[in-house]
């Protein structure tokens, strides 16, 4: 298998990430848990420190020099991050992460459902018998807010099932998404299966019935070239800490007409124009959704992260991680007693290389080891310096679909190498023998 190492200078990239030089349990660190949180390059760390040490002040709230400088950096960061996903600055709302963004949308729609907001907000109102459609692959953050919204409004929550090979059943989707469907919420890339979902088909089905589309882009924004307006999705969320950025920062993208019609969720300072003791008038988006003190230094650091990814080149990032995914998948299939989740060789479909025809993936695999609990596998790998995620990955319904309560997940990023994958595979190959579960 050819490697994109000639495209990416992996030695230079790895040198940009201080933590990768550390040892764990006396072993060189092999970090394969970027699906949970990515490592940060020095440029991101420096950007946040520089803001805090040289430009720290409240944004949009002062006329002094530092306040003006902080505001300019804050809004420059918005433009950089918005541009990274193909959007305009006014289409990007700062949040504390994807979970906050999804709750913002769900609660804003709930507010519209009780008559709050401008007349245009009525388009989002839900009532008894209206339907919200999600998929069986969702992270809890894109499931529970819709459960709660359905409970508050009387709407019905329906789902699109996943097939044995990990792909969504689009035939069922076409029957589930119907005239009562008002919202279709889905993940771009499953955080368990690593499969890039057919968002074009889902969006087309939703548009046919006039439903609002909401996409979780947490596992796609760091790994794929992403143009949200071109995809045609109405709303999308992503988290900074999964894309080389800091914690407590994320983004909500929205089509301009959608954001302008949504009523606010959190209220208070910085999102208003005029306030009396009886009522308040709200600013236009994105500020309408940014009440209170904002994550300013984190936004500046996230801008540094997307500039880093842009400098590497997202097509090159995806090609590199695709090669790692193929190496990982092929290696895991060769180890007895390993069951891959979302394996295209399972169920129907023609398998070519590491993927079924027409199925795109990112550098992530979740798997079960026959006879060994996922947590024991994780501890075995950790003792050898290999960091992976174990558990249900905040996707219990999906694990239940595959008859599991937990799995082991290895997820790669731009800084991982073929040597990382080989070290991981070598460690996995010794798990069952160590626990007496097989040769």
From TrEMBL:
CDD domains cross-referenced by the UniProt entry: SufS_like
UniProt KW keywords: Pyridoxal phosphate, Transferase
Any one Gene Ontology BP term: cysteine metabolic process
EC number: 2.8.1.7
Annotated Aminotransferase class V domain residues: 30-424
UniProt name for this protein: cysteine desulfurase
Family statement drawn from the similarity comment of this UniProt entry: Belongs to the class-V pyridoxal-phosphate-dependent aminotransferase family. Csd subfamily.
Keyword flag Transferase: yes
Catalysed reactions, semicolon-separated: (sulfur carrier)-H + L-cysteine = (sulfur carrier)-SH + L-alanine
Pfam families xrefs: Aminotran_5 (PF00266)
Domain of life, source organism: Bacteria
Cross-referenced SUPFAM superfamilies: PLP-dependent transferases
GO MF terms, alphabetically ordered: cysteine desulfurase activity; pyridoxal phosphate binding
Cofactor: pyridoxal 5'-phosphate
């Amino acid at each position: 298998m050819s490697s994109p190492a000639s495209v990416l200078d992996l030695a230079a990239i790895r040198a940009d990430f201080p933590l990768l030089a550390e040892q764990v349990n006396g072993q060189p660190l092999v970090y394969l848990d970027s699906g949970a949180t990515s490592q940060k390059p020095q440029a991101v760390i420096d950007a946040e420190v520089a803001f805090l040490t040289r430009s720290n002040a409240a944004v949009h709230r002062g006329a002094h020099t530092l306040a003006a400088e902080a505001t300019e950096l804050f809004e420059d960061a918005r433009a950089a991050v918005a541009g990274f996903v193909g959007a305009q600055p006014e289409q990007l709302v700062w949040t504390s992460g994807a979970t906050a963004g999804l709750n913002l949308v769900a609660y804003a729609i709930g507010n519209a459902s009780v008559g709050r907001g401008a007349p245009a907000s009525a388009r989002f109102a839900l009532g008894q018998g209206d339907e919200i459609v999600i998929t069986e692959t969702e992270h809890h953050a894109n499931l529970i807010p819709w459960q709660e919204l359905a409970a508050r409004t009387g709407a019905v929550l329906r789902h699109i099932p996943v097939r044995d090979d990990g792909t969504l059943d689009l035939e069922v989707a076409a029957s589930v998404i119907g005239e009562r469907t008002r919202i279709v919420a889905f993940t771009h890339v499953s955080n368990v299966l690593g499969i890039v979902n057919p968002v074009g088909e889902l969006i087309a089905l939703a548009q046919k019935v006039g439903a609002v589309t909401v996409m979780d882009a947490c596992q796609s924004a760091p790994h794929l070239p992403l143009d949200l307006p071109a995809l045609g999705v109405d709303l999308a969320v992503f988290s900074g800490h999964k894309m080389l950025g800091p914690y407590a920062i994320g983004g909500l993208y929205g089509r301009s007409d959608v954001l302008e019609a949504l009523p606010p969720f959190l209220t208070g300072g910085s999102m208003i124009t005029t306030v009396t003791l009886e009522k308040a008038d709200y600013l236009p988006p994105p500020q309408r959704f940014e009440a209170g003190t904002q994550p300013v230094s984190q936004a500046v650091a996230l801008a540094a992260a997307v500039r880093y990814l842009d400098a590497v080149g997202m097509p090159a990032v995806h090609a590199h991680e695709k090669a790692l995914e193929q190496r990982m998948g092929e290696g895991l299939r060769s180890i007895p007693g390993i069951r891959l989740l979302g394996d295209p060789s399972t169920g129907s479909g023609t398998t070519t290389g590491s993927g079924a025809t027409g199925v795109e993936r990112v550098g992530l695999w979740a798997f079960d080891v026959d006879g060994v609990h996922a947590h024991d596998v994780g501890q075995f790998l950790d003792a050898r310096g290999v960091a992976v995620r174990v558990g249900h990955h905040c996707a219990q319904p999906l694990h239940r679909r595959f008859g599991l309560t937990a799995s082991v997940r290895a997820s790669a990023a731009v800084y991982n190498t073929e040597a990382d994958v080989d070290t991981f595979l070598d460690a996995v190959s010794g798990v069952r023998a160590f626990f007496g579960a097989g040769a």
